[in-house]
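Researcher: Next entry in the queue.
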Amino acid sequence: MGGRVLKLNKLTFFVLALAGLLIASTTTLFLPHRFFLDTNILILDRYNEIGFVGSYPLTILFYKITGLRYVHFAFIGFLQYSIFMIVLYKIGIPERFHIINIKNVLIYFMFAVIAIYISMPSKEFINYLFIAALVFLFKNASYKLSKKVTIAILMLVTYAFFFRPYYAFISVLIVVMYYVSRLRIENKRVLAISTSLIVLIFISLSYGALKGVFLSEKTRYYVNSERLGSENANSMILSPVKPDTWYGESIGIVYGFLSVNLPFNGLKYLKSPHIMVFIVWQFLVFFILFKRFGRCLDKGRYKNEELWLFFILFSFFVVQGIFEPDLGSATRHKAGIFPLLYYLFYYEDFRKKLR
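Model: Structure for this entry, 355 residues:
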């Protein structure tokens, strides 16, 4: 029976991978032009942004030196999606992956999301590989946990310098969550997330005091102000209070965090079924991961590698409260951290195989 279960879970994985590969190779045939706005910037580089620092310059450089900017998108989709699946296969396939339940269906859905959102030339391709490297680091049994944490923080800071500056906030927030986890209190996960939000608000207000503009005001608010009324503005995240005061910025960050993780305001999209699908998916994903975070916290900190991965994941969710301009971008960025989502959905399964 065990052999049959193993075959069924692998068969399910390969069927999903092949279906996703077909989608990834044909996106140019059915996706609207707006899905390729970033792609055209990365491939054409009309403003000569190529360089070694910054997500756009470095991604443009990557596609140039690999030669991928000169080939058809169908080939890029095929190649990148194949790499995505190889990474997941190396992480592992859960024993009960073939069973139809809510947890598995949410992951099945992500196979298609990856094919649609990040299989064309994308900054998320690099992000996906970076996140995968973090997962493999904590899966590596040859390092002590303290060494893994040190390496992970150095990786996050380096990545922030060269590619995505907001990952520096994640390196701070995981330490905040760790110290909250040491407290002898109930509901550590709620306090960890709440404290991280407070720390992030403090960082933004401090930045505003020095620079004259707050972080979410500089990113989400200014970006969305330019897009009002356009066809790309359907799922924009607009805070009920303008983020140009300390209280407006504070409300805006909390509102942004809730909008992309617990979209309580999703009822306004009832007339947009495609947006509602992502809202329901996001709510269920957060709920399941929140429960698993609590279960992982209950096991204590000793040799608990997964706990640090949960710190990284929920720190990322918190930081999304600053910069995500809309629900589409939030979904794309979550596709870029899918190796981490995938691993933490099934970490108990993978942990058994390591023993």
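Model: The chain has a mean pLDDT of 92.
Researcher: Noted, moving on.
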